[in-house]
Specification:
With about 160 residues, the chain is mainly α. The chain contains six helices and two strands.
């Protein structure tokens, strides 16, 4: 929290073009999961739909997202990131990563890997408590043992005898 708070304060002073925290989170989720309705976003973040409606209205006004027909044929309109939204999100991610790289610049590669493993474990544990899993495009075999399987993931097939 402390690191995040300092990054947020520092980046707004340096570059007012940086995304607001809510915009960053919403765009990140849409980027990861694909077009989403306001209801889906509200459920994903555990927020009231009126809150998400206000936040997404700001994204629409700034040209960072656009409303599209449901790609799956549903009735609800969904939000999709625009080219500008994708560009701004990528820029913010790059700045965040470079800030973190400066923080751990004097750490050994082993210490950085240990931090990564512990943060993954922390995030997975928090997600499990809330029952809200962040979608990830990862292969089951690539997941370290410390990461629990997400409930929506199918279990790997059991080996069969020849």
């Amino acid at each position: 929290m402390l690191l995040s708070r300092h990054q947020v304060l520092a980046r707004r002073e340096r570059d007012p073009e940086r995304l607001e925290r809510s915009a960053y989170l919403l765009l990140s989720r849409i980027d990861t999961q694909g077009p989403m309705s306001i209801g889906q976003l509200a459920e994903a973040f555990g927020l009231d739909t009126s809150t998400v409606n206000r936040q997404t209205a700001a994204l629409l006004r700034c040209g960072l997202a656009e409303r599209v027909a449901d790609p799956d044929g549903g009735m609800a309109r969904k939000l999709r990131i625009t080219v500008e939204g994708g560009r701004r999100l990528a820029g913010d991610r790059e700045v965040n990563q470079s800030c973190l790289a400066r923080v751990v610049a004097h750490w050994s590669p082993e210490e950085v890997r240990e931090l990564e493993d512990v943060l993954v474990r922390l995030n997975r544990s928090a997600e499990a408590l809330e029952g809200r899993y962040w979608p990830r495009a990862e292969e089951d075999h690539a997941r370290p043992a410390c990461q629990p399987r997400m409930p929506q993931e199918p279990a790997p097939p059991a080996p069969t005898a020849p």
